[in-house]
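Human: I hope this is not a bother. Would you mind checking the protein record under this note? Thank you for your patience.
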Amino acid sequence: MKKCRLAQEQKYLGLGFDLVIGVDEAGRGPLAGPVFAGKGDAARIFVAVSEAEGPWGGYLATCRVLELSAATGSPVAIIHLPRGVAGTDVKVIDDGVLWRCQGGALARIRAGTQAPVVTMGGGGSDGLGQLVWYREIVPGDAGEKPWLQTGAYGDPWIFSESSIIRIPAGGFIRKSGDTTMHFPVEKLDLVNGKSVRGLLSLGISPALELPESNYRTRTDPGGIVSVTTTRGTYGAAITRMEQEGDSLILTVATESGSNVRVLVPAL
């Protein structure tokens, strides 16, 4: 680990920087950042950190986002997230950030307006930041009971000034022999996190057989397999999305290694 020394700080101060800010956190250390948002005195620096103890730290870790004042370097707030952030996959939105988290989750964070203070009789800021909304989708939570559920290829998404359109999970097939694979698509409002969902249905040929490896099964109370879930992509996967007017252009990768571009209406 490289240590920061006083000479390094003096070097950057001599180059005209007003402040040199260092962030340290017990545990696994910084996950992602710094991310700068806002302007002037309201400008903020966000750094995501993970904290855990013991040999399971890589799995059982808490994630916190530290918010610092870009003007003074002083702490403003801490935001606790249910899941760890997915590296540097973050977007700056006006006075805050939108961070993609593990498990396909999204967290919208707004910059705080007041640093934590201690006052006589209470009433001061508690130092907790503003988690405007947190959104997590679980494959199959739309009421579907598929015969085969496949894993997702990353988390393709389209980001605009007002919304996000994304493919939050892999495709699924309703029953054996079907030649249609369905992919969930979700549109999220950036202001309030409200969600509109739909399904993209793509034809495949020939019909898929169950995989021979890299899968798990779920059985019903009678011991009959009710759904098979692959641990990765299988059959077909949406690897990229682009928006053109009121339509989406999807790049679909197949088992044969070919890529197909498909035009579909947007939500």
